[in-house]
Design brief:
Chains A, B, C, D: Residues 3-63 form the HTH tetR-type domain. The structure is a homotetramer. Chain A is mainly alpha-helical. Helices cover 76% and strands 0% of the residues of chain A. In chain A, α5 packs across α6, α5 runs antiparallel to α9 (175-191) and α6 crosses α7 (110-136). The structure holds a DNA duplex.
DNA sequence: GATGAATGAGGCTTCATTCAT
DNA sequence: AATGAATGAAGCCTCATTCAT
């Protein structure tokens, strides 16, 4: 059935694309990895570019659903932000290969970066909505909501990627380490680093 | 004189590499941009790869010097961190082209990523040293120093890159906008986003 | 079918390589000569070098078979040597293009010469075995078998190549001329040039 | 003085050319080997081609003189042939690098081969003249003089080259081994390999 | 006379894409 | 639906040659 082959190809593609980046990834290698003939990829996707875009669309839906779902438990922005941070870290760790792809191509060649920045913007928007409500409800300090959201996104993604790709072999990051990273981020995002009394 | 040509080539190279990424950048275009013949590049650098590496080495020295210098004014970690944040934002804005290159290749193809992650680590180390002293002097909350440093680096770099490449034409970001970004970051890093009383 | 294209390419390759030598032969020209696209060669052979090596292997088998076969008629070393000389001259004349390639590259650039010398050694070995048996059976004068074999090989190959490439157009050497060359070689190899009585 | 530089360049050139063949030899390497700047070669020779031709002319004179000189001792063709064989083997061993160049280029690319074959022809002519007089004086068996001369030349050159380049390091071939090779060749050329009584 | 930085035409190789089966 | 042999445009790199000093 067609659906199967397509998913086979997607799975091979994320790995290869994430490993080498778009340009260095070869259709030959993706085909071999997927266990199909090169022609088969072209039967399902018009071009390398289109395969890539379809792949991103497919994977993006999942992460957005997941992030939105994790906020439905509660209406408290503080808790929602905490959930969000936890979920992002967890997702990025578990799908490091896709995460890396997302980030690297976003700052990659000008030809594809708009598409990716738009996608990243979608994720940041989810954060921003929480921040916005937090400020409205006077639970968060007033601030430039957009800047803050990007900063949080940056902090999370760079920290996690750094960890995920610290060692090429180690794909396994312990639950414990994940908690630790969430804590580090939370501490900074929630209370900052500077001990208040001393400020100024 | 040789030094001149080399710098000409470097300047052309940062732009082209940052615009298209390593793979899509063509030696032809770099040569044209630099106003030299293609062979001239190969007279000075053994390969595209080597040009790239030499370029990164050359540009990294400058930013490291700059960051180290901006901390020599004072011994107060709080002030040093502030200086660092200001300087990083300013530098990244002014050299967005190099900054983007650094970030994008760090998460790019495995072939070059180790080199780049090592370089990013050097920058993060500068932050980490300040954090470390801040904690030792009980000016900063105790925390995982390394994680915090990476988070700060991530927050700054993603925020700035997002701004710099928001619009391909606009290379000019106002002084005012820079201050605003520094403030956003500082606010988050110094006091966090959550109003303390409400926490938990 | 794949076998066909490969043989097409081989045939074009012997000619072009023999005409210009390895270095001056252009893949473009080989492709054009073979009536295939340049990429097709690279689909079947990893590189120019590999095409060359594969070609030599392919052609060497044929000549070795032929030489071995021509000795199976008889056990008389004198007759075997005569057959060998005849066959070598005939083969070299008919496949002058390959013969030339073999000889020229054997003394060509160090990079490939070992491979070729090893191949020539295989041919010389066939001669040497006959010489050896001839001496054992007291039909040939005792001598340094290896030296003698190389000398015979040198005499045959240089004489024939000289004839084949005397005139670039004339690819046709008459049966008669072939006999004559075989006779010249045989006379020298069998009885020497000096009239015995006069010797010293 | 100009003469010095020219000879320096010649010496570097024979080595490099003999090692890699004409095509793979780089002017850069010749210059470095000669201890002069690349431009200097072009000051003395119009092109790589011209350097090559000049080099061959220069070295050919020496060998022809030598061969002609070694026959002036005696009028006996048998002795002259013996001298010739000895001298050729000795020369080829001592100037293996030039010898190899001569042979390899003679069967090399069609572009230069005519020039080289003409040169080889000059050497063979020296042999042929001896053969001719030997036959006239009824000291040698009547035969195709030209074929016999080429065969002798082929036997000598292939045997010696094989020996010289048997091992890349060993440039030193003992006096003894030289005598042995001369003997092997002489035996074959003078009396042949087949014991007369048995012939047919 | 001598130098070596600069040049650019030319060659090898890669790889996305096509298409006949 | 699937295949994989064939294609050729495009890019990296080499290296003989030039020329200003």
């Amino acid at each position: 059935m067609s659906q199967e082959k397509t998913e086979q190809i997607f799975q091979a593609a994320v790995e290869i694309f994430a490993q080498h980046g778009f340009e260095r990834s070869k259709m030959d290698e993706i085909a071999r990895h997927a266990g199909v003939a090169k022609g088969t990829i072209y039967y399902h996707f018009k071009s390398k570019e289109e395969l890539f875009v379809a792949l991103m669309n497919n994977r993006m839906e999942k992460i957005k659903e997941m992030l939105n779902r994790c906020m439905s438990d509660t209406d408290d922005p503080v808790k929602q932000l905490r959930n969000l941070l936890e979920m992002m870290v967890t997702y990025l760790v578990q799908n490091g290969t896709f995460a890396k792809l997302l980030i690297s191509e976003a700052w990659g060649s000008v030809e594809r970066q708009w598409e990716f920045r738009a996608r990243i913007r979608e994720l940041v928007d989810i954060i921003e909505r929480v921040i916005h409500r937090g400020i409205s409800q006077e639970r968060f300090y007033p601030s430039n909501e957009s800047d803050t959201s990007f900063s949080i996104f940056g902090a999370v993604s760079v920290l996690v990627l750094q960890e995920v790709f610290r060692d090429p072999q180690t794909q396994s990051i312990s639950e414990e380490r994940i908690s630790q990273m969430v804590d580090s981020i939370e501490q900074m995002v929630y209370q900052g680093v500077v001990i208040s009394g001393y400020q100024e």
